Protein 1
Amino acid sequence: MKILLLFPVLLCCYLQSQTQTLFYNTVKIEFEKTMNVHAYYKELDEDWYNYIKERWPKRVTNYYEFVGDSVRSIYKPGKQTPIDPNTGYRGVADKNVVFNDYTAGTSIAQKPVFEETFLVQDSLAKIRWKVTPDTRTIAGFECRKAIGILNDSIAVFAFYTDELIIKGGPEGIHGLPGMILGVGVPRLHSTWFATKVEVIDVNMKIVTPPSKGKKVDRATMMKSLDKVLRQWGTYGSKMIVNFEI
Amino acid sequence: MSKRLSILFLLALLYQVIFAQEGIVSGMVRDTAENKKVVHAVVMLSRKADSTLISSTRTDKEGNFQLHKIPLGTYILLVTFPKFADFSDEVSVKDSLLDLGSIALTNESTLLKEVIVRGGSAIRIKGDTTEFSADSFTVKEGATVEDLLKRLPGFQVNSKGEINVQGKRVEKVLVDGEEFFGDDPTMATQNLGAKAVDKVQLFDTKSEQQQLTGTSSGTEGKTLNIKLKEDSKKGAFGKINAGSDLQKYVDAKALYNRFKGKKKVSLYGTTSNVSTGSLNWEDQQKLGIENDYEYDELSGVGSRLNDDVDDFNNWSLRGLPHSYSAGGLFIDKWNQDKQGVNTSYRYNWLRTDNEASTFTQNILPTTINYRNKFTTSEGMNQQHAANGKWEWKKDSLTSFKFTTAGSYKETQVLAEVKSEFLNNQKETVNTSDQDRDNHTTRTRWDNQLLYKQLFNKKNRQLLTIIRFGLIDDAQNGVNKTKTSFYRNNAVDSIDIIDQMRTLDGASKTLGLKMTYSEPLSTKWMLVFDYAHNRSNASSYRNTFSKNSNGKYETLDPVFSNNFDLDAYSHSGMGLLRFTDKKLKGVIGSGLSSVKLKLYNVDRNVGNSYDFINHKPLAQLSYMPKAQTNISLTYRGTTLQPTIEQLQPIRNNEDPLYEFRGNSDLKVGFRHGFESNFYQYKVLSQRYIYVYSSYSIVENAISNFTIIDTSLGKQIYMPVNTNGNRNWNLYGGWQKRRGPKKLSYGVQLNGNGGLNNSFIQQKNNVVKNKTDYKMLNLAVSIDYEEEGKKNFTIRPKIGYNTSKSSVQSGIKNNYFTYGGNVNGFVMLPGKLELSSEVNIDLRQKLPNFPSNQNFVIWNASLSKKVLKKKTGKIIIDANDVLNQNRGFNRIINTSFVQEERYNRLSRYFLLRFEWTFNKMPGSATSK
């Protein structure tokens, strides 16, 4: 009896999904960034890893908020995660604010780096993408996988969906036909995945560029970081990737 | 006119058509089944050569699309739309416009459903994971993971490296459970050596929802997890360093270290007559010697088990050394590092020859007098020490650690001491000649079991520590002292001591400590601590004079003391801890009761002492920004008298300077305040730190000195006093500016305070207050060109002042100057020259012998030799100016003392160092 009742409902749903897929122009997305701290530091410095492995958490999670449409978007720190009182771990490059203007092709990013806060004003990040046939569902959206190379050096894996007509993604990652809901950066042992997607009543008023910080372009910031971090040997040169994303 | 223009326009258009480098691709997307326009479909163009995405767009309301500015060339067109099959085709953009016409998409539901084959060829099934053991499948030498996968049943790998298992495509390749390895998942399978693989695990990829509900929709893909072998490393490391001046001095050491998997064996040996033969930190690291350091989070104090093992360091060396040492170490870990052992043994042998002189100025209420002491001594130390550690991580919540450390130490000192006591006119009051022969042994065994239990609730923790320790002391010494007392510059009387002293001591300690921490919220945490300790000790100290047979058999009861001691303590502590992103705080207190039961065996008298100790603690730290921290601490500490201080023991080892215990001592209490600030600016490379502390002590344990100026005898005993306080300050500023630039730094440190003591001269007791201060300032300048040259110049200046209330006219104020200069330069022919000069200049104190100035210059010249630069020839020049001597100056409440002793001065060594490093069969993993 129940099955009989359920059948027309299912059929209805099926037909609806078949005839019209809904597309959205504006979104508010919560991203969950997970960093595999142990794996990251193991690659950075084995001795240091042996010291921290008992003391630092294995994985650290942070939340970010992305609001945007096909013209502009903002990505900034979201809800706070409680910090473990027993650990001395402090995150690196986890408080970035990125404003992208897709029609003008420009980006304004606020990046706190140690004691300095940079306001990086430049064109959108340069990423070469290859789209693959692989798919995966993230936050209820079917996503297609793409492999990208950022600044000709850093590999990025991204999952984007056709159903959200925004060419953005977490941090400065962008440039795929649809909204990027999942990103992995192997060198940082970090992944970003959308955990919540809101498409109705999105307040676009908060999409304003950050204004605080030392105004620089991307090359200037990387040069001043490189000057200091290069002295730290391989540790520093691997560390620098954090600020490039 | 208009004709000309139109021709121009036509030409321009023609130019564009013929020579255009870019074109427009357009078309329309339709649904095959219903022949409807498809809106919002994604249309992408990827370059055929490298499949890089060049342009993408969406279809409009009419289903049309246009891609602009497409460089001429061949592309792959991809049209995607949710729930529809992808449309993909090769297109060539040859001229300015390419119209693809109508593109038809097919709904997925009309495609033939794929038949899902569920695997039956399991090698080992753990839940929903199929596991293949890599070693069961033979592959040729140098094979990659991909070659291995091809051999696994049910696996297919195509030319592109794509993997299909049991008819399903592998979506993800994990390495040791990590989602991305290297820059491309196939990189892992193609570059990782098959030999490095332990297991291949295959499981279904589930969505988060599926994982939550536990239901399977049957449409998931496959995930492959490649588990690497624990450690595919195997190898050996060794170092030999031998030096000699070809006459008198030898300094040599050899280290050997072999590891296979997690097993590691190390051996070392040294011989030297320029150092104590202890290994430096770097060598210890290489050998895997661990300093077992336990940090007590509650008290904020670190401690080491069997703390007196390290008597053989160069830092505390006095005299000229001659040493041998040898040791070995074994480390192993197994069961995925869940269990491990670390055992080591070492032997040290050290002989020192020393000539020391001590000049003491006693400051008395009415006068000053002097005591000068000259000692020639020969010391012989040897020690066997063994350590063992076993660790077991039972699971992610439970772990055990057992540590045991045993040592046997033997010390023999032969000393000849001459001393003189002078009055303020520098007239002799007494002289003494002493011959001492002392033999001491100490056997020690410490054990500790640590049990740590975590709980599912985060940060809840229970830590239990059980300790058990045994100490056995034996001492046997002969003391022959002849003291001549003078009156009017003539010997008035002679006192002779010819005695043997023995000590037989033993102690047994058992302790239990439990710490429990409970999180109240994400920010607040409670920590409780309870400890119980009990110890049983005996100390039999006897002094014998010679009997008529010439044997040391007549007991001298004045200097003999035999007692048993039982000590019990209970202590508890409670702390409340607050942790937020910027603010951290701790507040709490500890309370302990200590009961000492002393039983005097000689007199059959029991005596017991009860002490209550408090340990309040409050700490606040604030981090306004990253790398900036301000903290304030208050810590109260109880100062409990030691059993030696409480016992009415008399010791006549030096009959002119005798110690007596005081059974009336009360517990002291120290209030300590500390403040700390640091700031590190990473990008501007600036570092600032300031630390200051202040403490004031109630019932401080100080000295009561009874001086008999006519005989030149002193007796000192511990007493309680109030008003002792001191402060400490250090700070610094440093600015680094990178290679090839000068970096600067400034360091300041100082301390000072007020100490009280008592002096009794005849029947007159005077309280002596000493006010002291010390300030030091140093400036440093560094320069570095990596691998080529570097230098540091660090001049310093200091000022010391001290004033005693009993003789406020005497000021012991002096300046110190000097500093350090060191540098390194790579000379032509890859000769490395390094040199260091330490300059210590002190102002002379009135009434003390002169020359407290030292300029120590060390230099070394080396060249790397042999293939791969594994050898090194070194010429070492130590103390080129031949000025090195041991020196120590102490300014105390009632005396000022300078000590000089032997130190190895100028010598030259020709050294050869050879290192080898063998690591065959290392993993090919990157």
Protein 2
Amino acid sequence: MEWLNAVVQGTLLGGLYALFAAGLSLIFGVMRLVNIAHGDLIVLAAYLGLTVVTMLGLHPLLALIIVVPVMAVFGYVLQRAVLNRTLGDDLLPPLLVSFGLSVILQNGLLEIYTADPQKINAGALETASVQVGGLSLGVLPLLTFGIAVAVIWGLQWVFYHTALGRAFRAVSDNPDIAQLMGLNRRHIFGLAMALALAVTAVAGVLLGIRTSFDPSIGGARLIFGFEAVIIGGLGNLWGTLAGGVILGVAQTLGAKIDPGWQLLAGHIAFLVILAVRPNGLFPRISA
Amino acid sequence: MSALYHVTRSSKAAQLAAVFGAIGLIFLIAAPWWAGSAMMRLLGEIFLYLALASLWNLMAGYAGLVSVGQQAFVGFGGYMLFAVTIAGGLSPFAAIGLAGILGGLIAVPVALLIFRLRGAYFAIGTWVIAEVFRLSFAQVSSLGGGSGSSLPVAVVRSLAANKDGREAISYWLALGAVVVVIAAVYLFLRSRNGLALMAIRDNELAAGSLGIDIWRTKFVVYIVTAALTSMVGALIFLQKLRISPDAAFSVNDWTAFVIFIVVIGGIGTIEGPIIGTLVFFALRETLADLGTAYLIILGFVAIFVMLKAPKGVWGLIRARFDLQLFPLGYRVLKRIQKKGA
């Protein structure tokens, strides 16, 4: 029963990791950009959530109404003003610019909020739980997992059933021809980043409710998201959810063996899958 | 008037640079007799950062292996120094060499795994490896676990009898490391393998079709870089005398700063990291009082350079003056004979 409990809790944790990963997967799919600052943007969203909650006294989930659009606009501006200039055949410029952005965000947050760990207070939601067949499941992890499924379903729907999704797929397949067909790829890339950071905003606020955070934890969140993407297979959003779940389960099982092994077990699961199936479990495109 | 063409590697500027470099090196070797101990510590740190930057530049600028996980080998080398001297009772000098060998060995399985990832995913994969190293060393209780450990006094004493002697030796080791690293990079790039490497960088497909074994060439560069980075890591923590997982495997200290140095100086040139290191330490020494704001400024400078001058400071200088202080490429010169020969 204890082991089953660990697997179930790990699955629910995987929902959060899938949310970390969805934004990363989206922007890689559309513009082949790997954003080193992704984890720091998640932390930025958590701090924005914290600020909104403490200043307006809103419930954290209602604070999303403000945090999501703010992050989306930030994403659009960031893409148009900075990241668009780095795109091209060379992978070094986007990597370095997002590395610089990561250092700026980390230290900017440190300057404003100090290094003290913070947490977003969500009241009764944090401790509420339901009994399912002898297992006690937290409402917050269940909600997080539900949101992850909804977000991935939503992204999937946008990608394959809307004009915007068609534009995303077009610039992803061939940006030059998409441009010839009248799409402004700079604008499309901006929208993709806006959508990615909207997802990131949700992930950040949920992270902030779940655990305490400080400006330095972004790197590890980037790595979790990245591992979920690779485990699941590039370009496959449902695969990313599966990847998040595998990573979450590996971590909770590792923690069950020895608390010091939690993160290590997740990384080892990732490396094993990389060794056995280099393209991930459900690949759709090759890197 | 007849024009004679001749092909040469050397140039006036390179010869001058070699002479000045030799004089400067003698001057630096003599530092223990003219510099104070704070100055020597700073110089030692500059040398070690320059060594790290030159190695990262060899990987990213020449072999196209953009790693953000070199802290894995810096930390590994540092920990090997501590493990070998504390548990094995070896002298620190032997430990530094051994750290390099072990770093190269551990890099073999690492490379076999992460070479499956391409481009930017390779970069983050290297970071995962560094995290695995950090978490693993945090589990080793004989090396202090998560809180780390200090180098025993007996080991420190075995370097030299008195404090001045230890400072001088530690300084010379750092200077030696940077000279060895830059010389190794320079000679490697002038060799057959270096030519293959630059061909791969310029066009992987064309290089492959000319019979260059791309995987093997990159693999060798990765292993050699890992070994040398581990040695530099051992030297860094020989200077610090204390090691902990967070300090040893810090992505900011050993990778972000190193990348900024290379980018600001000029990636894909030997001169770039030297200039970048000087700029980095000039910025650090003047802005250190600003605390975190200094790092924010550094981040903006790096982004600005990448967007506006992607070839860095040295790239700007070279475009203006056609200089190459470490001659790698060949050039065809037209010599005009004064009296009709």
